[in-house]
Amino acid sequence: MHGPASPGWLLVALCAATGAYCLLRMRSTVEEQRRAAGSEALMGFGMAAMAVPAAVLTLPRWAWLVYTAVFGTAALHALWAARTGPHHLHHLMGAFAMAYMAAAMTVTPGHRHGTGGSGVPLLTTALLLYFTGYVLLSGVRLLSAPALAVGGGAGTGPPGWGDRPELARACRLSMGIATVAMLLTL
Fold this sequence. Notes:
By secondary structure, this protein is mainly α.
């Protein structure tokens, strides 16, 4: 992606840490949480790879085509999963946004997307509005979530890393923030 190197490296670190935590969440005993964590790990690591500053590493066109195919496939998978419930729609939006950004970099890898006389494309604006709203709503939900008691009832221990809903929300919030940052530099 385009943009200054220091914020780019911070974005890489945030996305890689989020992807690593999502891998830990895949150890959950709940199948749906494991499935969501796997999808989010793919997004986190993919976002980290795409966020490497262009001043450090300029990827060839074929690499952006691979990103487009991977995230396009993830979007199709999320679309298929969305038939079982609306909670998969956000994964669809995230995968679609990543495929869109990779496709934009395929077309113009050395130039800023949307500059010149054309302005910012309508789809970029729509994605920015969606993810900005998602980040604000997720932040409010995270702040207003009740604190979980560590230790629960008799015979129960603290929840495992894969079963901490507040950490999963923070993970999704950080990926939403990273998506907004990447869309702004597109």
